[in-house]
Write a structure and sequence with these properties.
Elements lengths: L1 H10 L3 E7 L3 H12 L4 E5 L14 E2 L11 H17 L4 E10 L7 H14 L8 E3 L1 H7 L10 E10 L3 H14 L3 E4 L1 E9 L2 E8 L5 E12 L5 H8 L5 E14 L6 E6 L5 E7 L2 E5 L3 E3 L8 H12 L15 E12 L18 E5 L4 E5 L6 H14 L17 H13 L14 H9 L3 H10 L15 H10 L5 H8 L2 H4 L2 H5 L4 H9 L3 H9 L5
Parallel strand pairs: 1-2, 1-10, 2-7, 4-12, 10-18
Antiparallel strand pairs: 3-6, 4-6, 5-6, 8-9, 9-10, 11-14, 11-15, 11-16, 12-13, 13-14, 17-18
Length: 539
Amino acid sequence: MALRDTAREHLDGGSFDVLIVGGGINGAVSAAVLAGRGASVALIDRGDFGGFTSQESSNLVWGGFKYLENYEFLLVRKLCVSRNRLMKAYPDNIKPIGFLATLDQTSPFPRWLAALGALAYWAIGSFKTHRPRMLSASKIESVEPIIDTSRAQGGIEYYDAYLTDNDSRFVFSFVRSAMDVGATAANYVELVAAKRVEHGWRATLRDVDGGGTDITCHSRVIINAAGPFVDDLNQDLGPRTDHRIVYSKGIHLVVPQLTDHERVLAFFDDTRRLFYVIPMGLRSVIGTTDTRVDSPYTEVTDDDRDFLLGQINSRLDLETPLTAADVIAGRAGVRPLVVKRGAGDQSEADWTKLSRKHEVEVDSSRRVITIFGGKLTDCLNVGEEVAEAVEQLGVPLEEDTGSWYGEPARATRTEFYRQARLMRLDDLRRKPGVEPLTDRLWRRYGRRAFQMLDAIRQDPAMGEDIMKSADYLRVELHLAAGTEMVTKLEDFLRRRSKITQVIPESEVRNSPGLREVAEILFGDDADDKLNDYFGQLPV
């Protein structure tokens, strides 16, 4: 909490080059690039960082193979280039992964055409992934026996990438990067009013977690990175834009691990739309759907759940079909899709064919930059376009050396692994199906992981698991308390970690280590934070 209090003090009466409203992937990457290039940056979100659309993704970093069906070759090329850059910059966080697509009578095209598309996709992506291949039904059954191939024509295998941790933690890594070079960032701070003044804006902000206290700051430029709420915010700020947002709802279901093969299984559902089974450690994630909605606020309905379970049960050869009782957690969010103003309500459009591109618009007279759309894969492109827009508005930036994103240098990684090996870090804890501690701490924390080694050396208890069913060390909680701006228990359980996505809530509630988690994170406020999250203290 001290970190957030300090940020709030810097905001109050502060003057910044840029005020970014919205701490999802667009706002986070904008803060990282601008702060990394010398601008004074303030980043706020009325909820938690990565706490809305950005926490409901498929955790995939992909070029959009399925967008080839709509002939969006330039978009696919742009996404593939961004995917390649991310894989190179984040080798421990973003890993190549195979997609095994089974084609049956619901497929909209034959196997040979899918294979041709996969070859084209490989070429568009500059051959940076493994070569795709065409598979017979018998070959699919031999490499992935869980798939029911009785109605299959065969299939294809192609490659993309995925986040080995969770999406919102990846978002927070950009926020943390921005803070490390001087940005002021605060979650649970809302923009309630903004007035044009000479040389920029005077913004009134409200600390929604601190009794509703109002503070003010000045900014030369405002960046609207409010995701699905960009249109609402622009109504208040007043810029003219050529685009607007419409909503597509997508859901995922987290279930026990269906296959221990580290690959994505792809199928066409009965509506001829692709859906996937995606690995998440010892869990599998089934999704996603694509449904037109009119509100950004969504949830997994009974119909959503029953549809996905029915689709996957009919395509897998399971001993016992999946039921609602197998669902550990649900993920529901909206894609903010970009359409031209004056294009009508899109009610007659083929919803699944609306473009997934982003747009960055600049209103020079109002000094407002608006980011429409966007996704995890495209984040570096968004950041660079925002930086160009900020310079266009007269805010000078330093040369872009690329230091604002990516993992630490290989030599730093080598030194961490050397120190971890000398202290036998991986011998502290071994669990079946769980990655070694050295890999996990480096992947999650980078340079900050050196602090953990020091803490464990001084106190071996810091290297103990704090919750039996969750994969978290005591030292990680102490680091989160000091450096990750955890304001509510959900921030840690859902976003800085993915505990509540992979462990049933009843197990989390009754974990003997939960109280200590809250005490480390919140000190004397632990009971209040537990009550806020669960409604009552765990038994």
